Amino acid sequence: MNARWRTLAVALTWLLSVFLVIGGLAWQRTYERAATQERVALAHGLALHAAELRDADPGTARKLGTAAVGIHSDEQTRAGLIDTMIDIYGETLPPETPYEVTVSGDGRIALTSDGHETNVLDLAPWTDQEATEEPGRIPTLKGHKGRSVNTTALSFDGRTALTGDDGGITTVWDLADPAEPARLATMTAGRITEYTNGVKKVALSRDGRTAVIVDHDGVMTVWELADRSRPKRLSTTRSNPVPIRDFALSADARTAVVVDDRRKVAVWDLAAEQPVKVAGLDLDMEFSQSATRTAMSADGHVVLVQRAGRIEIWNLADRAHPVRHTTLDVSFDKLYGTYDMSLTPDGKRVLLAGPGDSGVLWDLSTPSRPVRSAALNGHTREIGSVALGAEGRVALMAGSSGVSFWDLTDLDEIVADPKGASCRRYDAEISEAEWARYAGDADWSAYKSEDADSVSVCRTDWWS
Q: Per the database entry, which stretches of residues form a coiled coil (predicted)?
C-alpha cells in the first residue's frame, strides 16, 4: 500500500507541476499580450499627438513621432513619423494664389499661373544648399493680351516654356535667363468656337524640339521647334469627336495619351507623318464614367489614369496592347476626386493631389505593388496642381493657399528607416511633464534610464 500511495503522490505531484507550468505559461502569455497592447496603444497615442502638433510645434511632433516608432514600429507609427519629418522640408513660395504649377525636369525652373499671370520662379535659392542669394524679382510672362492662360509646359532643362490661352494661342518663351524671359513666337491651336475655351493642354518633348498643342475640342497639333522663333507645324489631327479632359506626352514625343469628355482613354502614335490612334484602354463602365486625369513616364511605358478614388496603372511597352498593372486605391487619402498628378520621368514615383489639404507620394518601383511613401502637408485648403522635378527630389503644390516647395532629397532614407533618420539628425528627450501630458497613464519608469529624469527618444531597448 505504501508503494502504491507513493506512486500516486508522485503522479499527483507531476500533474500539479505540469498544471503550474501550463498556468505560468498562460499567465506569461496573457501578461505579454497585455503589455504589448499597452505599448501599441501608447505608441499610437503618441503618433496621434505628433500628427496634431505637426504644424504648430514641429519639434515636439518629431520627438513624439520618434518615440512612437521606438516603442512600437508598425505601419501607422512609421507613416506618422515619415510625414512629420518630410514636413520639415516644406516651405511656402510666392506668389500667393496660383492654380497651376509646372517644374522643369531638372528641378531648376518653375512656372506658376493664376489664369491671369504666369510667373517664372528660379528655384536655385531653395534647391542649391550652397546658394547664398535671396530669391529675386519674379518675372511675369506677358504677351497674351488680356486672355486667360489655361495651361503651361517646360522643357526638361527649363530653357523653353509654352503658355496656352483661351483664345487658342500658344506662346513660345526663352527662359535661358529666368530673370529676363524672351517671347519668341506664337502657335495657333485648332478651331475655336463659342463652345470651346481655347488651348486645353500643351506639352514639350524632353529636348524641347517638339511641341504638342491640344485644344478643348480635341484638335491635336504637332509642331517642330528646332528653330524656336520659327515653329513649323507638322500635323493637325482631330483626336476626339468630343472635348478632352487631359493629355500626356512621352519624352520623345512619339506616344500620347488622351482622355476625352466621355471618359475614354486613347493611345496615339505621333511618330508618323499623320498621327495614328493605336489603342484604347479597356476600361470597365464604372471606370470609364469617371476617368479625368492621366500621366506618363518619359519612355511612354507607364501610364496612370485617374478615376474617383482610384488610379489605374498601365503598361504601354506594347502600345497596341496596353496591359493593366493594378488599381491604386487613394480614397482614404481624401483623394476621391484627384485634381492632379505628376509622375517622375522613370515612372517610379507619383505625387497626387485633390480635395484634401495634402499631396500624397506613392512609390511605383514595382508597378503591380504600389507603396504609399509620404504625405506632403502644408495647405489649409484643396490643392489643384502638383509637379515633380529632378527625378522626384523636388515637389511643388499649388492651391488656394499658395505654392509649397518640398526638398525630397532625403525621402528614400527617411522612408527606409524613419527612426534612424530622425536620430541621426538629433537625439531629443521627453521630460516628465511632457510624458504626463502626452503619454496618459503609461508608466514613466518603464521607458527611461534608472537615474535619468527624461526619456531619450532614440533608445532602442525600451521594450526589452
A: none
Neighbour tally for 213: CB within 10 Å: 28
Pairing of strands 323-329, 310-315: antiparallel
Q: Where are the domains of the chain?
A: 2-87+418-456
Q: Encode pLDDT of 44-101 as tens digits.
A: 999 999 999 988 899 999 999 999 999 999 999 999 999 999 988 888 887 666 778 9
Going by C-beta distance under 8 Å and a sequence separation of 6 or more, which residues neighbour residue 168? Answer: 188, 189, 190, 192, 198, 199, 215
Which residues have C-beta within 8 Å of that of residue 392, sequence separation ≥ 6? 344, 348, 349, 408, 411
Q: Is 101 helix (H, G, I), strand (E, B) or coil?
A: strand
Grid coordinates belonging to 79: 507613416
> Which residues have C-beta within 8 Å of that of residue 135, sequence separation ≥ 6?
93, 94, 121, 122, 125, 126
> 3-class secondary structure for 136-175?
CCCCECCCCCCCCEEEEEECCCCCEEEEEECCCEEEEEEC
For residue 139 the three cell numbers come to: 518675372
Rounded to two decimals, the pTM is 0.85
Which residues on adjacent β-strands are paired with residue 389?
394
Give the count of beta carbons closer than 10 Å to the beta carbon of residue 211: 27
Q: In whole angstroms, what separates CA 45 from the centre of its chain?
A: 26
